[in-house]
Amino acid sequence: MSLFSLVNLVLLFFILPCIFFFHPFILVLILCLWFYLFNRYVSWEFVNITTDRIVGFWLFLVSEIIVFATLLFTCLWFQDYYSKPIAHAYGAPMVESWLLISSSFFMTSYRGLINTKWCHLFLNWSIIFSFFFMITAVLEVMSSGVSSLFNPHAAACYMTIGLHFIHVVIGTVGLTQLDYYFSFDVVRRYSWMIVVYWHFVDYVWLVVFTIVYLLV
């Protein structure tokens, strides 16, 4: 039995409350614990990926859609006259949107030029833009005048952007693995999963941007 789901329970049930109550030190400890468990029990499972794992990948994306839809619905449900946006929509969030859309474009170019010398150039640009996104997102939260404890709407918004931020981090780690495309057969065979996952993260952000920032 795969331990991947069990290890991810640590991420789901411990890291989200840390984001909600904004305890950075505990958050770092939980991330370190998850990273240790992942490398200790899970990482080598992906070396033996079989065909049925492809179905699991699509089911994983469906489950992700359900999670994000639940959080976004919560944002809309608790939105009222007193709700305040975490940041102005046409400030840092707009820059973040541009960075992710550009990164998605670079990944499309990478996939189309996978067997040429230009592929790594587009891949590296995509990784660079993802890092700029993460830096901008951290600065946005640090400079925000809205606390996660301000009201349920603010808490739901923080949990939504926090969860998406985690997905960007994981996606960026996946993108770095594509640098070994010509070195490992498992990376070549399933590189499309990383590309699809990254596009998924980008598209989810557009919905998050609309509901969390534009509609408030």
TrEMBL record:
Matching entries from Pfam families are given as: COX3 (PF00510)
Listed under GO cellular component are: membrane
Keywords, sorted A to Z: Membrane, Mitochondrion, Transmembrane, Transmembrane helix
PROSITE patterns per record: COX3
Family, according to the entry, reads as follows:
Belongs to the cytochrome c oxidase subunit 3 family.
What membrane topology does this protein have? Multi-pass membrane protein
Q: Name one GO molecular function term.
A: cytochrome-c oxidase activity
GO terms for biological process?
respiratory electron transport chain
**Highest taxon, organism lineage:** Eukaryota
The entry's protein name is Cytochrome c oxidase subunit 3
The record ties this protein, via Gene3D superfamilies, to: Cytochrome c oxidase, subunit III, four-helix bundle
Q: Where is the Heme-copper oxidase subunit III family profile domain?
A: 1-216
Report the protein's function: Component of the cytochrome c oxidase, the last enzyme in the mitochondrial electron transport chain which drives oxidative phosphorylation. The respiratory chain contains 3 multisubunit complexes succinate dehydrogenase (complex II, CII), ubiquinol-cytochrome c oxidoreductase (cytochrome b-c1 complex, complex III, CIII) and cytochrome c oxidase (complex IV, CIV), that cooperate to transfer electrons derived from NADH and succinate to molecular oxygen, creating an electrochemical gradient over the inner membrane that drives transmembrane transport and the ATP synthase.
Spell out the subcellular localization from the entry: Membrane
